[in-house]
Amino acid sequence: MKIVTVIPGDGIGPEVVESALRVLEALGTDLAPDVLDHVNAGTYRREGTALSEADFARIAASSATLLGAVGDPSLEHTDYVRSVLLRLRLGFDLYANYRPVRLWHDRLSPLRDAAHRGIDCAIVRENTEGLYSGVGGAVHPSSPWETAIDADVSTHHGVSRILDFAFSVARHRVCMVDKANAVRSGGSLWQRCWEAAAGRHPGVAASHLYIDAAAMRLVTDPGSFEVIVTNNSYGDILSDLAAALAGGIGLAPSASLNGTTGFGLFEPVHGTAPDIAGTGTANPLGAILSAALLLEHLGYDDEARAVRLAVGGAVAAGRVTPDLGGTLGTADATAAVLAAL
Ligand code: NAD
Ligand code: IPM
Ligand code: MN
Question: Last residue of a domain, which of 245, 264, 284?
Answer without folding.
Answer: 245
